[in-house]
Amino acid sequence: xxxxxxxxxxxxxxxxxxxxxxxxxxxxxxxxxxxxxxxxxxxxxxxxxxxxxxxxxxxxxxxxxxxxxxxxxxxxxxxxxxxxxxxxxxxxxxxxxxxxxxxxxxxxxxxxxxxxxxxxxxxxxxxxxxxxxxxxxxxxxxxxxxxxxxxxxxxxxxxxxxxxxxxxxxxxxxxxxxxxxxxxxxxxxxxxxxxxxxxxxxxxxxxxxxxxxxxxxxxxxxxxxxxxxxxxxxxxxxxxxxxxxxxxxxxxxxxxxxxxxxxxxxxxxxxxxxxxxxxxxxxxxxxxxxxxxxx
Amino acid sequence: xxxxxxxxxxxxxxxxxxxxxxxxxxxxxxxxxxxxxxxxxxxxxxxxxxxxxxxxxxxxxxxxxxxxxxxxxxxxxxxxxxxxxxxxxxxxxxxxxxxxxxxxxxxxxxxxxxxxxxxxxxxxxxxxxxxxxxxxxxxxxxxxxxxxxxxxxxxxxxxxxxxxxxxxxxxxxxxxxxxxxxxxxxxxxxxxxxxxxxxxxxxxxxxxxxxxxxxxxxxxxxxxxxxxxxxxxxxxxxxxxxxxxxxxxxxxxxxxxxxxxxxxxxxxxxxxxxxxxxxxxxxxxxxxxxxxxxxxxxxxxxxxxxxxxxxxxxxxxxxxxxxxxxxxxxxxxxxxxxxxxxxxxxxxxxxxxxxxxxxxxxxxxxxxxxxxxxxxxxxxxxxxxxxxxxx
Lengths: 295, 391
Hints:
The complex is a heterodimer of chains A (295) and B (391). Chain A is mostly helical and 295 residues long. Chain A contains eleven helices and four strands; from the N terminus they run H-H-H-H-E-E-E-H-H-H-H-E-H-H-H.
């Protein structure tokens, strides 16, 4: 009885965690490159979800096209945000772009609320045959598998890009030392734009997948998911791609298990609890490297 | 210089966004002021999460005002509604209530929810303005003071009557109870259901709590899937109700749910689709085309004519009755001064409204009968049972 429930809760947790992981990847990459916590990232995810909804309800496309469309809308959006709200502040104090990010986040929430005509949730139609599979003690659905597979594939793809491609090399160089990289002939602006673009594409895809899984989207859906994904990025080790994935899944499982154990009232606090613990005892996160400072 | 320009644009955009967000407050009607009208405030959400309740209540109020004005008004004066939209935001509700009071309304109809009614009542009572809620069903409302009223069927009597029906007619023996924690309405309803379930011999095999605005209920449903039960008693609102049922179907659970009028909204079947078919919602009013008579029938026809043949649910009916109740009390007192007509309102007895017969008891709580149990059938609520209330 206990174990049956345990395995099922584990499946629930991994699914939820994969959605956090997809969004955490965006936080971790942007932070890795320019040490900015992009608090408007949750809103990019929300806009991705709405794009997906419009695609499947108005244009009646299948879900793969919807995901692609969401990614294509989110990429220029994120690049625009970076150009307008962060780039002009790149040489100011660390606090300025952070506040600017919060401003963009509120702006986007309000904008979508206005366009949509109110914050009440919209139903996401069933776009794929959501078959339920029974495997031993656990049940899982097509959408759950899809979320996990997409998250894993995108992470592998990302890890490969960063490790083995030219632009990946430029990203690593920029994250190492911004000034030197630009002196070495790396177009850091292009690297930063690329980083935002990749993060936004993942968030957009995540928005559509979450819409499909939870069947409901609203203009403020990015707030709590965004904050929790940020926690996931820090818990996993901010700047680390596998860390974001691990942190996301870890927090997803922790949240679901917490609710199952009866701490449902503290559900939102679980992620932040882990954030505090990690910052206290291992500030670099689970997979983060120790910070080395040359003197 | 260039940098500054970007910043300015950003600040301007943000300011615009904030202004747009702040526009949800009370709307001044152009021909306000002057002694020839009696102003009645509407307090509710015309936007936001519970917008359905507010929009529908206001529709009913407007119908009542039109009926009264075309029949010559109240004490020779026309009625006029002053709208106060709080955007389903409880922190905004206090400001909107305050604003309505400064606009010199004689009475406020609203809010359709228990929690916001309670906070608005704290402002209306000292300001000596009558507040008549057309939707608050939970406990602790009229206790706030003698300016506070409501015209709805109380959960305290409706929920036990429905529980008896679940036990005796549907033969439910074991139930799972789901509460939205932090939601005054839901916690209140749960505290009424618990003793009622025990009284009619039903066992609560599992209790789960969820939070408002949650979309992921997988953990709670997995916990329920380990138990045997006949149905779910759900005390929260329709958005969470619909998503909770969807998750139940996903995890292979086939029970239906029963709950209060918090589940009453088209969003329940729009969001819940097949998962909520057969789920039951009780309310103080339902369109019962076979048995409706007199005023109620007239009301339904008028509503249909104005709303593309759509049928009214409890909210427009209660909004309509609320304005009518106030108008009748003002007529009886020959005054629109709340300190005067509130006593006449308190003496309301066997008053015929479109939602049934209303009497205020000595504690100023409305006594109403019957309760309508409705079932989701396709894309609509259909009357399943009309349960009389015996007190």
